[in-house]
């Protein structure tokens, strides 16, 4: 460290080192002048740009490191000059280190050591940190190799007397080294990971621990200095900083925080015995008690990092975890939690941030109790610790509560903990907490003064994330209730039932009386009922799990079961007798009654019949003049039909005993003339399901009765007039009443009407609307869908009901299918503007407006979902409502066709076995699919996925290729064109309503792309087995084979060996790498990584097909990866992109020069660098992390840089508070990520020229 500060004399003896030294004395003043120009507010843009260009060019100068050292050493220079000087050294280390000789590298290192020794507290922090970063950059490249005394040099700096500035410097070096070696994706560190990680463990661990932990260890190159190790040194420093004499000092507080930051980085990988030996837990607990919020937060983050470790041996658990369970520590933790409580209306940012991290740390600490319950010593204060867990879970802030709520689900799963007397006093408070938190907060008004809602709105800005978070919170609350009921049975159930009783009897206390005129589906009484019934449903699930296991004392359990079920029946009967006017409350009562009837009370036939009677006799008062109330009544009626079906599915034998009375009652209800077609069909399918699912009826009688339902449906499809009409597109429009629409739109000059929602329909418009509705109801689609659904849904193949379904529909399928495909083909064709002949040119653009669905999207659409439906309902008699009726008719036909096709596909070879089906089906599905919106295509993709999934393996070759080839080609064209349109739109400024619509379009396009790539991911899943063999063998055109399913290729192999399927599939996936959706791109990259090895050259033969695929991936896919790697948008995926690039190089480079040629065609890439990369990447034993690092290092000058890295901005305390930890992100992972900032696409001219022939 005592080398000369004069760069000339240091390297004077070596010619190679002289190249680093400065001979150009005129350069220094020019650098200073350029820096003044760049930072002066008075400089012109042109002069500033020229100065910046010059400063960049200086970095490439061979003498740059010397000038950097000279300027950085000069304390008289301005900080901005010295910072630039350090960047010259940084550039030399990062970009040219490999080119330097050993002497040059030593000279450069010596300069950095001198700069490090000469730092002073007067230097700005960013200069000190920049100098420490230079140390780290050199360490990553040479420590443990050429540089062996680094630890000694750090210790010498550490021991310098006076200010703590050198200690902070060392702490920065240690933390950064730890982060980049163990936690980061740093390219240089990854390539030397073995040597660096070993050296890190060596210098942090006390020598005595190394000797004990690894007694047979072979000591290699010595890199450590001293016996203590850095864990011990840092503990000693922390004790000094927290001493009574020093804790008030600002510099000692800062030093303590920095020490704890190193702890945080080191705790995940340090040897547990070293953590224990160095008393790290005790030091961190002492820091928790410090009178500084910054130190407390740093301490809790370090403890959190430690307890994120998943596994400790019993010995390690006792020394590292159990100290946190002692009375003294638990008392400290309780006081800290109480201190951290904040007012939701005046949030203390630092305290609140501490409370969040504290909760996560406590959650991890609690998980060890379940894992190691038998190892916990007697002196641990578990009762008070569990009380603290309850207090944290009861926090008014959901974000603070939820981590510990998860811990409670783990604790209660343990029989030992759940059955412990210690837990008994906490059961009632836990049940009360979960009951209160099951209120649907997302439906509460945002101006509510509920503290939990205020916190929630503060913590989570977007509606989708809020919904996902609350959904997760409810899920954990429900799990806790379930687990408590499984453990405590009757005691818990009776408590829950009495709470629900109380709530129902006082539902409208403090609330205005019920009024249909001012009705709201999210009123407080409705929310309360929903919350209490959700608790009861959770208790019911817990009870059923207990009943299934039936305990360890069968006789006593049976007596308890009988008594409980008698009491449950009485409770449910009281519930049915309650009379509420609110349709949603009545719906929830109905749902809960059926749930009990089909589970806990499934032996109580009398109760089931009471529930059935309640559904059949229920007649809610209708107020058609009040639209919101009227919609709720329809919802109640619809749910009544669903619950009827659920009873028929779950309890067909009991219902068969009263079938004649039921049939008479259903016929009476239908003949009353008050039901629409949909509800009539629902009653008929109820009877159908009873006969179909019952085990108490012989097959001949069953088939005969069921044909009585099906034959009329089949006859509807044989209507000659309908058959003739759907023979042409115009006939289809006539049949649905759509032919009158065009003339009406032209006559009313709709294209001149600005606000359709304000234009009231005249008598002719209303008549056309009614005609559309009546014609739609006359079609056989809805009835067919209902009966097919009852025949196929929730039925196992090879079960008796399934075999009955196959026989039942065998004759009907050939009759229905041709006309069904015509309906579907025409419904899609209606979306093609080319088919709207006769419209004046100025009205052509109306077609897309008329056919664009209106839908509500959380977080994007204005207002709530109920507000949206109210707006839609309010515009029914306007031109907007007229357009809605048009697209509604077509949508109903389209989606009914999808449902029928899926149900038919469940019938195995009776559907798939038709020789002529695949071509016409592919045409009907996809001929005009490109005209559908992204929203509509999602439903189409889902039905395609289901049909392919259900296809018998022996018929795949016949059915799948035409369907998937057409599907992938259409998806490629649609997604590619829509993403291109979106990119163009984002370049142009957009505001107001257009922005909302654009956001909806983008969100739906992301969903479509995700649906498509996930479908492909499912098809190509290597772990996906073949389904069982087909069962029915009588299909008219199917000739059965004798091969078992196992002899056929998996769906993955089938797709990868079919040129028909694979070509459009690969094209779509390749284009998807460039689509600006990181979630979808990530899926595609994983799919490609799984595909690449399948086309590596085989040891024996290599087919032309495999070779062509290999060339395509080596060229087009590789180019797409490099292009995305270059783009800042994909910066979060650079690791995945590099992984795929590495896979291509590893598997294909031995067989083809294409990957190498692509890399050589890139600007600034040297042939020697490419060959070196290929050589290293192909070596045996190279880990994937290192292979990625090699690729990223080769392409480092082409990598995009994230917006955040382009200019770092200091964040406010509130902004830091809103940043989410990994655990918090997990609680919101079910929803799509928040929308990216809207900004024009960056210039891609650099990439565009990358692949030009040279």
TrEMBL record:
One Pfam family cited in the UniProt record for this chain: Exportin-5
Region (Disordered): 1-23, 1212-1254
Protein name: Importin N-terminal domain-containing protein
Domain of life of the source: Eukaryota
Residue ranges constituting the Importin N-terminal domain according to the UniProt record: 51-118
Protein family: Belongs to the exportin family.
Any one GO MF annotation of this record: RNA binding
GO cellular component: cytoplasm; nucleus; RNA nuclear export complex
Biased composition (Basic and acidic residues): 1216-1240
One example of a Gene Ontology biological process annotation: RNA export from nucleus
Entries under PANTHER family matching the protein: EXPORTIN 1/5, EXPORTIN-5
């Amino acid at each position: 460290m005592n080398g000369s500060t004069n760069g000339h004399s240091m390297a004077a003896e070596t010619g190679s080192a002289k190249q680093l030294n400065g001979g150009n004395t005129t350069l220094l003043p020019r650098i200073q002048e350029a820096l003044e120009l760049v930072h002066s507010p008075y400089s012109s843009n042109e002069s500033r740009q020229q100065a910046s260009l010059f400063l960049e060019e200086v970095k490439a100068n061979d003498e740059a490191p010397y000038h950097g050292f000279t300027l950085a050493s000069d304390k008289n220079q301005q900080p901005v000059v010295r910072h630039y000087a350090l960047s010259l050294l940084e550039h030399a280390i990062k970009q040219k280190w490999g080119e330097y000789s050993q002497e040059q590298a030593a000279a450069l290192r010596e300069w950095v050591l001198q700069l490090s020794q000469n730092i002073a507290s007067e230097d700005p922090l960013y200069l000190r940190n920049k100098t420490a970063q230079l140390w780290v950059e050199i360490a990553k490249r040479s420590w443990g190799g050429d540089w062996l005394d680094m630890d000694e040099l750090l210790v010498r700096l550490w021991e310098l007397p006076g200010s703590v500035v050198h200690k902070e410097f060392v702490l920065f070096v240690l933390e950064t080294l730890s982060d980049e070696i163990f936690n980061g994706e740093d390219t240089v560190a990854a390539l030397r990971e073995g040597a660096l990680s070993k050296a890190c463990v060596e210098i942090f661990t006390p020598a005595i621990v190394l000797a004990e932990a690894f007694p047979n260890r072979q000591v290699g190159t010595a890199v450590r200095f001293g016996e203590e190790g850095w864990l011990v040194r840092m503990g000693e420093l922390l004790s000094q900083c927290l001493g009574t004499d020093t804790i008030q000092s600002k510099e000692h507080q800062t030093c303590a925080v920095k020490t704890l930051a190193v702890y945080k980085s080191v705790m995940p990988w340090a040897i547990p015995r070293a953590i224990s030996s160095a008393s790290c837990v005790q030091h961190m607990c002492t820091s928790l008690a410090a009178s500084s919020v910054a130190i407390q937060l740093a301490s809790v983050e370090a403890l959190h990092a430690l307890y994120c470790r998943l596994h400790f041996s019993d010995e390690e658990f006792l020394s590292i975890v159990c100290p946190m369970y002692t009375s003294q520590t638990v008392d400290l933790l309780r006081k800290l939690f109480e201190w951290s409580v904040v007012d939701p209306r005046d949030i203390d940012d630092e305290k609140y941030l501490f409370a969040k991290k504290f909760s996560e740390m406590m959650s991890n600490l609690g998980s060890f109790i379940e894992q190691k319950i038998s190892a916990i010593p007697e002196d641990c204060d578990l009762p008070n610790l569990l009380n603290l867990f309850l207090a944290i879970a009861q926090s008014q802030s959901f974000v603070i509560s939820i981590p510990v709520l998860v811990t409670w689900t783990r604790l209660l799963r343990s029989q030992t903990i759940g059955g412990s007397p210690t837990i008994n006093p906490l059961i009632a408070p836990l049940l009360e907490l979960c009951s209160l938190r099951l209120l649907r907060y997302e439906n509460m008004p945002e101006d509510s003064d509920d503290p939990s809602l205020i916190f929630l709105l503060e913590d989570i800005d977007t509606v989708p994330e809020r919904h996902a978070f609350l959904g997760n919170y409810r899920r954990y609350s429900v799990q806790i209730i379930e687990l408590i009921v499984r453990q405590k049975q009757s005691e818990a159930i009776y408590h829950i039932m009495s709470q629900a009783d109380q709530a129902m009897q006082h539902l409208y206390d403090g609330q205005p009386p019920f009024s249909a005129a001012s009705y709201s589906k999210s009123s407080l009484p409705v929310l309360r009922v929903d919350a209490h019934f959700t608790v009861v449903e959770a208790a019911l699930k817990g009870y059923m799990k207990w009943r299934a296991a039936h305990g360890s004392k069968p006789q006593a359990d049976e007596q308890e079961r009988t008594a409980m079920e008698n009491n449950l029946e009485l409770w449910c009967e009281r519930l049915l007798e309650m009379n509420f006017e609110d349709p949603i409350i009545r719906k929830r009562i109905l749902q809960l009654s059926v749930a009990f009837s089909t589970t806990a009370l499934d032996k109580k036939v009398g109760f089931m019949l009471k529930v059935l009677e309640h559904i059949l006799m229920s007649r809610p008062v209708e107020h058609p003049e009040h639209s919101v109330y009227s919609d709720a009544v329809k919802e109640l009626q619809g749910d009544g039909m669903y619950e009827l079906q659920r009873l028929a599915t779950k309890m067909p034998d009991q219902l068969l005993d009263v079938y004649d009375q039921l049939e008479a009652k259903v016929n009476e209800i239908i003949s009353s003339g008050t039901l629409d077609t949909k509800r009539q069909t629902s009653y008929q399918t109820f009877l159908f399901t009873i006969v179909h699912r019952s085990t108490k009826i012989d097959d001949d009688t069953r088939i005969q009765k069921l044909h009585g339902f099906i034959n009329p449906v089949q006859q509807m499809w044989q209507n000659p007039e309908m058959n003739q009409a759907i023979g042409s597109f115009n006939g289809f429009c006539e049949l649905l009443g759509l032919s009158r629409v065009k003339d009406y739109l032209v006559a009313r000059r709709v294209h001149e009407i600005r606000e359709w929602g304000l234009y009231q329909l005249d008598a002719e418009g209303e008549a056309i609307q009614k005609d559309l509705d009546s014609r739609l109801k006359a079609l056989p689609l809805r009835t067919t869908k209902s009966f097919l659904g009852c025949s196929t849904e929730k039925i196992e193949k090879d079960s008796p009901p399934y075999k009955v379904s196959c026989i039942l529909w065998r004759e009907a399928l050939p009759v229905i299918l041709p006309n069904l495909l015509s309906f579907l083909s025409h419904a899609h064709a209606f979306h093609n503007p080319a088919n709207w002949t006769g419209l004046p040119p100025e009205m052509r653009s109306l077609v897309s407006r008329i056919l664009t669905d209106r839908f509500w999207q959380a977080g994007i659409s204005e207002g709530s979902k109920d507000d949206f439906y109210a707006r839609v309902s309010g515009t029914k008699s306007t031109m907007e409502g007229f357009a809605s009726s048009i697209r509604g008719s077509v949508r109903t036909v389209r989606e009914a066709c999808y449902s029928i096709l899926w149900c038919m596909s469940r019938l195995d070879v009776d559907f798939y076995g038709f020789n002529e089906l695949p071509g016409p089906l592919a045409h009907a599905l996809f001929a005009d699919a490109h005209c559908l919106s992204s929203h509509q295509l999602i439903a189409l993709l889902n039905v395609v996925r289901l049909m392919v999934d259900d296809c018998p393996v022996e018929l795949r070759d016949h059915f799948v290729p035409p369907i998937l080839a057409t599907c992938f080609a259409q998806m490629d064209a649609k997604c590619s064109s829509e993403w291109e349109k979106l990119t163009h739109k984002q370049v142009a400024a957009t505001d107001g309503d257009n922005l909302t619509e654009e956001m909806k379009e983008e969100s739906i396009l992301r969903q479509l792309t995700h649906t498509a790539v996930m479908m492909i991911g499912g098809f190509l899943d290597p772990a996906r087995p073949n389904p069982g063999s087909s069962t029915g063998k009588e299909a008219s055109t199917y000739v059965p084979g004798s091969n078992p399913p196992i002899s056929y290729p998996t769906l993955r192999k089938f797709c990868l060996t079919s040129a028909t399927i694979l070509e459009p599939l690969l094209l779509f996936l390749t284009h998807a790498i460039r689509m600006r959706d990181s979630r979808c791109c990530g899926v595609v990259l994983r799919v490609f990584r799984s595909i690449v090895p399948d086309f590596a050259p085989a040891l024996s033969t290599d087919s032309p097909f495999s070779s062509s695929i290999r060339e395509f991936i080596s060229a087009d896919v590789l180019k797409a990866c490099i292009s995305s790697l270059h783009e800042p948008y994909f910066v979060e995926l650079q690791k995945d992109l590099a992984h795929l690039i590495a896979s291509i190089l590893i598997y294909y480079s031995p067989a083809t020069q294409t990957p190498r040629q692509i890399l050589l065609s890139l600007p600034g890439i040297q042939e020697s660098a490419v060959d070196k990369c290929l050589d290293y990447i192909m070596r045996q034993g190279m880990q994937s992390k290192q292979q990625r690092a090699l690729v990223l290092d080769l392409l480092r000058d082409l990598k995009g840089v994230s917006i955040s890295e382009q200019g770092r901005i200091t964040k406010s305390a509130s902004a830091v508070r809103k940043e989410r930890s990994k655990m918090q992100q997990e609680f919101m992972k079910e929803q799509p990520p928040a929308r990216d900032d809207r900004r024009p696409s960056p210039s891609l001219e650099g990439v565009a020229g990358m692949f030009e022939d040279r």
